[in-house]
Amino acid sequence: MNRPPIVILTALDLEYQAVREKLVDPRPHWHPQGTRFEVGRLADGRCRVALAHVGTGNQAAAVLAERAINAFRPAALLFVGVAGALYSHIALGDVVVATRVYAYHGGTSEDDGLKSRPRGWEISHGADQIARHIARSGSWKRGLPTGSRDCEVRFGPIAAGEVVLNSRVSAHARWIREHYNDAQAIEMEGAGVAQAGHLNRSLPVVVVRGISDWADGTKKTTDRERWQQRAVANAAAFAVSLAEELTAEARDDARRTTTETREPAMPETTRNVAKGNARVGVQAGTVYGGIRITPEPSPPVDLAEALAGFHTRLQRARAAGHLDEDTYAAAEVELAVADKALETDTPQSRGTLTLALKKLRGLIGDVAELAAELAIIIGLAQGLS
């Protein structure tokens, strides 16, 4: 488990607890300056998560985000919490993924009024693509209570300032509408986290917010109705699915980079000549040791048959001690999801199938033979029309 973790930051205790409940065996990790992180792995995969509570406000979020980046060198940084919706068509409990984070308090005060000086940070293209795929597949909702599964994932800008907005008619609210009217939600930490990510070689940063109120004066009512708890549960469920997939993609990138680095350079042209009844089996330069030419095995054609065969080899890997019991159990869960998705042929089921196989890849990535076979199966799944 030496892979870079995903750092998840939260502002409120209830947000922290919603994410912590997703971790297996979380253990404290103390920063020299006193910040307490908890590091654990997600129950459904080998993704490690470093979790911290940063308190409210962009400044605190920026400082502790920078501290987390330096301590863990993460594959990505997520901020998970609640937010107020700026439009009434966004339902309580919906999840908003920030495509852009506005630091909306920047401006200049002149004789004729306050002039906005917009500043914003966009989500990285790769992280955006992965988040949208997870949203389309709907697989992230599997662990939610039945009543929460009708929530939607929305993608759009989020405004991050330094005050709690709880009015549609205040000067603060008018300022947001006039200068940032494409923002879907408002909160208080996203700008600090986005800035920290931007200053660290474009580290992928994703702000995931559950909608707990409409920022319209009804916050006390919605809080009494426990919408904060419901909204952050939805946001945490989406965020951990995103963390698993970001980890799998980071592992693939590292594997591709290693392969490209180690691949020896071949001469531009090698010509071998065969005389008499001889036949050239391979064009090569200097060869050391013996050569045996065998036909390359054909990949399995039937996806259901390939999954069944993989299940058998998974059992053998466990019996041989290549997989521990926890990893094997988690892998079986994803195989079951893949089998179920294969029973129907819809765009959503195909997305669920591919996502389950990628999660499975994250689990068995250290077993080379299984990983190679699963890569072929994923190719077959992605080739489904």
Automatic annotation (TrEMBL):
Q: Name one GO biological process term.
A: L-methionine salvage from S-adenosylmethionine
| Composition bias, Basic and acidic residues | 250-265
Q: Provide the Nucleoside phosphorylase domain boundaries.
A: 5-242
Using the UniProt annotation, give all residue ranges assigned to the region (Disordered): 250-273
Family matches, as Pfam families:
PNP_UDP_1 (PF01048)
The superkingdom listed in its UniProt entry is Bacteria
- Please provide, in alphabetical order, the Gene Ontology terms of the cellular component aspect for this entry: cytosol
Instruction: Spell out the molecular function terms from Gene Ontology.
Output: adenosylhomocysteine nucleosidase activity; methylthioadenosine nucleosidase activity
Indicate what this protein is called per its UniProt record: Purine phosphorylase
